[in-house]
Design brief:
Oligomer: single chain
Largest sheet: 4 strands, antiparallel
Number of helices: 2
Strand content: 25-35%
Distance between the termini: 5 Å
Strand order of the largest sheet: 2-3-4-5
Shape: elongated
Bound molecules: zinc ion
């Protein structure tokens, strides 16, 4: 058994409503993947702690195709 993020693993598509225009936002890559591009010396665990998200959650950016705003939403990992 392992804790995995359903979005990173393609297990489910998460639908989030845009708080600004009510459209469906689309899930983007996990935030720590972005950090990896810019901070190659930090491992994922440290990055997650810096971001204030526990290991039980995976922080994703959701972007709105209508108004082009984005939002960070922590996704609960599931046991697999
Ligand atoms: Zn994820
Ligand atoms: Zn929107």
């Amino acid at each position: 058994m392992e804790m995995v993020c359903p979005i990173c693993n393609g297990l489910s598509s998460y639908v989030v409503k845009c708080p600004f225009c009510d459209s469906s936002m689309e899930a983007q890559a996990a935030v720590q993947d972005y950090f990896d591009d810019y901070s190659p010396y930090l491992d994922k665990e440290i990055t997650q702690k810096l971001d204030g998200v526990s290991k039980a959650q995976c922080l994703h950016i959701f972007s709105c195709p209508q108004c082009h705003r984005d939002k960070r939403i922590p996704i609960d990992r599931v046991l697999m």
